[in-house]
Amino acid sequence: MDEKTGKEIPIFFAVDDGYCPFLAVAIQSLVDNASKENTYHIRVLNTDISEENRNELAKYEKNNVRISFDDLSRQIESTADKLYTRDYYSKTTYFRLFIPNLYPQYDKALYLDSDIVILDDIADLYNMDMGDALVAAAPDDVIQFNEAFRAYAEKVVGVADYHKYFNAGILLMNLRELRRFGLEEKFLFSLERVRFAVAQDQDYLNRLCKGRVKMFGRIWNRMPIPDPGIRTEDVKLIHYNLTFKPWHFENILYQDFFWRYAGKTKYFDKISNIRENYTEEERFRDNRMHEELIHLAKLEADCVGDDRESRNGSEG
Length: 316
Known about the structure:
This protein is α/β, with parallel strands linked by helices. It is built from 14 helices and nine strands. The strands form two sheets. Strands 3-2-1-4-7-6-8 form a seven-stranded mixed sheet, sandwiched between helices. Strands 5-9 form a two-stranded antiparallel ribbon. It is globular, with a radius of gyration of 19 Å. Mean pLDDT is 89; it is low at 1-5 and 84-89.
């Protein structure tokens, strides 16, 4: 990591009201590991956060930590009917695509999903030198370890190599270059003509940004999937994505880190009640949903011709 800066570090989250308890855990971990030498501006993109949750989350403000709640209802009203989702996702997942144009005062920013815990100073990730890359991100573990998803990433999304398909839940965004590139305009154009069934906004970002992505190590976006190549002591950020939720399932890898920070929030009892009241039927549904997603990726990939050998120069 390089490019030290004393400027404000803008950090974006996007949530609906029901996800505020988990956002609190993420913010707790961010603040606990933040350096006093840096200034952090946490901007919570939303459309419906209650006053009670705003007041609770605002308590994390410190001398060097500022928290803003940015209601995007009006800004996305014209496109809301075009934004499609599946399963448990909400339309807030698309908010990251509007950040460059909505915040012209920033040249660079972090976007973080809320189902995370941060184990190191997030400023170290922000200070990465991006060059002229549009985004910096980590390879998506779920894609890397499943053949159906690998084929989907290459054949349907169109990345040259599935290793370069990134997870958009932890993004360092070069906002200046994304504005020059016209990300929002290109996304809205694509939205009218291409429909991705598996990862929606993440698929669009991979399609639009390919060739201009800086990959960083998975220790900054570590998913709870066993991998002997990554030591726990090296992990800097844990991402409990998809169905890998400690508040739904027992024996999730790295669950102790989540409960450590959850225990320091005012939402601990609420989160514990969610886990205790999560039924076996709901767990079965979640597991089935993941299997259906794999099946969907396979169907999508099977419907597209395969020219990967010629693209890799192994034919003729």
